[in-house]
Structure formats: structure tokens, C-alpha cells
Design a protein that fits this description.
This protein is α/β, with parallel strands linked by helices. It has a single domain (about 1-245), classed as Rossmann fold. Helix content is about 50%, strand content about 15%. The protein has ten helices and seven strands. It has helices at about 1-5, 20-30, 45-55, 70-85, 110-135, 150, 160-180, 195-200, 205-210, 220-230, and strands at about 10-15, 35-40, 60-65, 90-95, 140-145, 185-190, 245. The longest helix has 28 residues, at about 110-135. The radius of gyration is 17 Å and the shape is globular. The two termini are about 35 Å apart. The structure holds NADP nicotinamide-adenine-dinucleotide phosphate. The site of NADP nicotinamide-adenine-dinucleotide phosphate (NAP) has 30 residues, from helix 2, strand 2, helix 5 and helix 8.
Length: about 250
């Protein structure tokens, strides 16, 4: 019975930013749990193809769609492509994200806008893209990737922190709006995870951050993916409007 509750067999999931890092691990884990996957990305064609191959090795279907999810029209193509290829959309993972870190004094309005558009407006765009199909089938799951930074704030990340806090507010509102359509809406707020994004942080700062994590290490994309699979699964059928913190005890 427990196994059945984690089963995503024949579900269709759209994963934004699924070519690298957390999104890649999420796409593979959802496929492992039985879902067919639309992998979105914005530039990394090769990595997206690689993810597609790995999903197909798991005997699941996969389509890759290059689109900038910060742009409304491009994001709508994700919903259309999922419907064309698979005929339905059961799960949306709003994962695509970037950082352009500067203190407020040095941050340009371009850097502010780019991060707001890619990390937060994309969540609006992609949720709109799958909303009608999910409402028509009276069910779905939407999960957006927030961050520990959305709750703690961080030096040099006012743009990024604002988007991640915004995702939490969006999630709570959508959970209320879409509950009557049987659509569950949740967020996850990971702490520091070993991906290319963390790779941009200088070594001394990385060590400083690590010393603040109770479990003494960064998280892995696979650990985040397991939490996402859980939230997508029938095992989480009564969970909506929540933000799941996972940060190794960095923020308690
Ligand atoms: P990453 O390794 O840099 O991967 C980012 C992914 O997003 C890539 O697949 C990238 O595709 C895609 N992407 C970027 N801009 C896009 C756009 N405009 N349209 C479509 N796709 C786009 O980042 P990550 O560390 O896995 O982060 C994934 C998410 O987790 C982000 O929302 C991030 O804020 C959040 N997060 C990360 C951490 C961490 O410590 N790493 C912690 C908490 C939360 P292309 O390569 O094709 O551009």
C-alpha cells in the first residue's frame, strides 16, 4: 500500500529548468516514480538531450522544450507542448531560476528585473500555461522551488530573496484559489544545494556557509528531488499551501 501511495505511473509532469541541477534530479526522480516528463530549459540543449536519454532509459517518455519561462508567450508553449505530446498535464514543477548577486548599491535595474522575471514572473506564466488543462481534468499538483533565502534574506541577494519570498505568497494564494479544482499547490525551500548555482560562490564563503549548517554539509539535488516526488504523490494528498523547508538545519 505504501508503494502505491508514492506511485506516479502514467502521470505527466512539466519541469522548468529541467536540464541541470535540481530540475534535472527532479525530472529523473519523477520519471523513476513512473511519470512522463516535459523537460524545459533555456539554453543548454546538450544537457537537456542527456536528461531526455536518461528518462527514456527508465522506459518513460520525454520531450524537451527550449523556452524562456520568464516570457509569457514562450511559457504558454509548455502547456501546449505537453497537451500535444501527452494529452494532459498532471504536475508542474516551477524550478527554473537564476541569481544576479549585487548589493543594492551596485545592483542595476536590469539585474533586478532579470531575476524577478526569470524566478517569479515565470511561476505566474507557467502556472497559467497548465491551469486550463488541470482545471478541465479536475486535478493536478503544482510545486514551486523557493529558497531558504526567501525566508532569511542574504547579503547581495535582494532581487533573488524577493522572488523566493514572492513564491511563498503565490503558493499560499493558489492553494486557496485552486483547492475546489482538486489542484494542490506547494513550495519547497531548499537550503544550499550542490549545483552549478552554488559553484559560483567563492570557496571561503562556501566554508563559512557550511559551518552554519547543523548537519555540516550542503544538500544534494537528489535529496530535493525525493521531497518533490513525495509532495507530488498521493501520499501527500492532504498537503496544500505549505512550504517545505529542507536545509540540513541551517534555518531552524
Ligand atoms: P542551476 O544548476 O543553475 O540550473 C538552473 C536551471 O534553470 C537550468 O536548467 C537552466 O537552463 C534553467 N533556466 C534558467 N533560466 C531559465 C529560463 N529563463 N527559462 C527556462 N529555464 C531556465 O540551478 P539550481 O541550483 O539547480 O536551481 C534550481 C532552482 O532551485 C532555482 O529556482 C534556484 O533558485 C533554486 N534553489 C537553488 C538552491 C541551490 O543552492 N542551488 C537553493 C535553493 C533554491 P539553461 O541552462 O538552459 O539556462
Amino acid at each position: 500500500m505504501i508503494e502505491e501511495l508514492y506511485d506516479l505511473k502514467d502521470k505527466v509532469a512539466v519541469v522548468t529548468g529541467g536540464s541541470r541541477g535540481i530540475g534535472r534530479a527532479v525530472a529523473l526522480a519523477l520519471a523513476e516514480a513512473g511519470a512522463d516528463i516535459l523537460v524545459n530549459y533555456s539554453r543548454s540543449d546538450k544537457q537537456a538531450d542527456q536528461v531526455k536519454k536518461e528518462i527514456e532509459k527508465k522506459k518513460r517518455k520525454c520531450v524537451t522544450v527550449r523556452a524562456d519561462v520568464g516570457k509569457f508567450e514562450q511559457a504558454q508553449n509548455l502547456g501546449k507542448a505537453a497537451m500535444n505530446h501527452f494529452g494532459k498535464v498532471d504536475i508542474l514543477i516551477n524550478n527554473a531560476g537564476i541569481n544576479r548577486d549585487r548589493t543594492l548599491r551596485r545592483m542595476t535595474s536590469e539585474q533586478w528585473n532579470e531575476v524577478i522575471q526569470t524566478n517569479l514572473t515565470s511561476v505566474f506564466n507557467c502556472t497559467k500555461a497548465v491551469l486550463e488543462p488541470m482545471m478541465a481534468q479536475n486535478g493536478g499538483v503544482i510545486i514551486s522551488v523557493s529558497s531558504i533565502i526567501g525566508e532569511m534574506g542574504n547579503l547581495g541577494q535582494c532581487n533573488y530573496a524577493s522572488t523566493k519570498a514572492g513564491i511563498i505568497g503565490f503558493t499560499k494564494t493558489m492553494a486557496r484559489e485552486l483547492a475546489s479544482n482538486n489542484i494542490r499547490v506547494n513550495a519547497i525551500a531548499p537550503g544550499f544545494i550542490e549545483t552549478d548555482m552554488l559553484g559560483t560562490v567563492p570557496e571561503d564563503i562556501r566554508n563559512q556557509i557550511k559551518s552554519q549548517i547543523a548537519l555540516g554539509r550542503f544538500g544534494t539535488p537528489e535529496e530535493v528531488a525525493l521531497a518533490v516526488v513525495y509532495l507530488c504523490s498521493p501520499a501527500a494528498s492532504w498537503i496544500t499551501g505549505t512550504t517545505l523547508r529542507m536545509n540540513g538545519g541551517h534555518y531552524i
